[in-house]
Amino acid sequence: MVNGKLHVIDHPLVAHKMSILRDKNTSVKDFRELVSEIGVLITYEATRDLPLTTKTVETPLCKAEVPTLKGKKFAVVPILRAGLGLVDGVLRLVPSARVGHIGMYRDEETLEPHVYFCKMPKDIAEREILIVDPMLATGGSASAAITEMKRRGCKNIKLMVLLAAPEGVERIQTDHPDVELYCGALDKGLNEHGYILPGLGDAGDRIFGTK
Questions:
Q1: Active-site residue 138, yes or no?
Q2: Per-residue confidence of the chain (211 residues) as pLDDT tens digits?
Q3: Are 55 and 68 in contact (CB under 8 A)?
Q4: 22, 88, 175, 205: which one is catalytic?
Q5: Are 104 and 113 in contact, with CB atoms under 8 Å apart?
Q6: Helix (H) and strand (E) counts for the chain?
Q7: Which of 53, 56, 59, 110 is catalytic?
Q8: Is the backbone peptide bond immediately before 81 cis, with ω within 30 degrees of 0?
Q9: Rounded to 5 degrees, what are φ and ψ at 160?
Q10: CA angle 114, 176, 136 (to 5 degrees)
């Protein structure tokens, strides 16, 4: 399903794997593997518009002009820590991608997110950027991460998440109407604690087995 800059991946494999992720009885091992697998499937869609050029190869029968990616200027940027669970899936499809890292903390009084760590390739402003995080709840952290990447000169930015709430989608579309958003499922909303419903719990805790 595509709605402007929002792309909800309508695919049976994504839907099936998301259902297993939601199950509270899914093990840490299986949860981690499924996050990576869904990451592969969403990355496939998120990279659909990567530019192509051609090159000459020699097949067993003849020479041929064949398509190939135009350049290798691509970077995946996980929002720490849960975003790390999606990186492997992206790199399976784009193994030449560079990896940046961005860490956020939330101000206890204002509840606004702030960047505490940001390590990027030197040429990050020249690259296609895919910011990854399993959950888009209120959208505050993702919006702040996008703002930080724009501050560093990045112009081609996409956001990839497993689950999104309408509140988070609205925040991204309001703050960054130029950013394409890819998600595995769009849930019904947030509870009073800011968790996505029906959701899948705390993705970071379930990926790393810390709860």
A1: no
A2: 656 799 999 999 999 999 999 999 999 999 999 999 999 999 999 999 888 999 999 999 999 999 998 876 899 999 998 999 999 999 999 998 999 999 988 776 766 788 889 999 999 999 999 999 999 999 999 999 999 999 999 999 999 999 999 999 999 999 999 999 999 999 999 998 888 999 999 999 999 999 7
A3: yes
A4: 205
A5: yes
A6: 6, 14
A7: 110
A8: yes
A9: -125, 125
A10: 60
Residue 136 DSSP SS3: strand
What gap in Å lies between CA 183 and CA 168, rounded to an integer?
11
Residue 160 has which token pair?
Answer: 């990839």
Q: What is the pTM for the complete model shown?
A: 0.91
Q: Does 205 participate in catalysis according to the annotation? A: yes
Strand partners, 77: 131
Q: How far is residue 207's CA from residue 32's CA, in Å, rounded to a whole number? A: 5
DSSP label at 111? Answer: -
Q: Enter the tokens of residue 145.
A: 């991460």
- Which pair of tokens denotes residue 32? 């981690």
Question: Phi and psi (nearest 5°) for 140?
Answer: -65, -50
- Let me know if 110 is a catalytic residue: yes
202 flagged as catalytic: yes
d(CA 38, CA 16): 10
Q: Which residue is associated with the tokens 């399976």? A: 92
Amino acid in the structure at residue 205: D
Determine how β-strand 135-136 pairs with β-strand 157-164.
parallel
Q: Which of 30, 49, 106, 210 is catalytic?
A: 106
